[in-house]
Design goal:
- Keywords: Membrane, Transmembrane, Transmembrane helix.
- It comes from Snuella lapsa.
- This is GTP-binding protein.
- The protein is of the alpha+beta class.
- Strands 1-5-4-3-2 form a five-stranded antiparallel β-sheet.
- A hairpin with a 2-residue loop joins β2 and β3.
- α2 runs antiparallel to α3.
- The chain is elongated and about 75 Å long.
- The two termini are about 20 Å apart.
Length: about 170
């Protein structure tokens, strides 16, 4: 991975390695049993690296690698840093709920406006939904910044395994 790529601003990355993808996958599988700092899970061409439960907090990131074969001697590694899937699902559910309520209050306000009835409560609720969305956004940014050091640890762990393979 190029040193100029900032992992914090670009949580997705891709690079090519002059190794067979099975060699790399087997190296991650082997490392799973020789260390206890990270939990490594492999499913087909996918490798998930995350922190053990006792080191995790709500915003702890995990690293998902997809290692695809180009030919017998090369592979491409696609990486994605992201939150725990459960946290991500909850966060997206709340975002969709807020957006749905915003639309519902907008329709209700429009209906009351068309009927020449009071619609102040509905507009107030729409503004509250905007404020909640801003709070969710700021919370996500705080969570992202609290996981920066852990993202660097995950990247360094991955690079260590890949460097060990290239030296053998």
């Amino acid at each position: 991975m190029p040193a100029t790529q900032d992992i914090i601003l670009r949580p997705r990355f891709k690079f090519e390695l002059p190794q067979n993808n099975q060699t790399i996958l087997e190296a991650f599988q082997k490392t799973k049993t020789t260390q206890s700092d990270f939990i490594i899970t492999r499913i087909d061409d996918h490798v998930f690296i995350k922190f053990p439960k006792h080191k995790q907090h709500f915003w702890s990131p995990q690293l998902h690698l997809e290692i695809n074969e180009v030919d017998d001697y090369n592979c491409i590694v696609y990486g994605l840093f992201g939150p725990n899937p459960t946290v991500w699902t909850l966060f997206m559910f709340i975002h969709f709920l807020v957006a749905g309520l915003f639309i519902a209050f907008g329709i209700w306000a429009y209906t009351n406006w068309t009927l020449q009835s009071s619609y102040a409560i509905q507009v107030g609720m729409m503004l509250l939904m905007v404020i909640i969305w801003i709070v969710l956004y700021l919370g996500g940014q705080i969570g992202k910044s609290s996981g920066k050091q852990e993202m660097v640890s995950l990247r360094n762990f991955m690079n260590g395994i890949l460097n060990d393979i290239s030296q053998t």
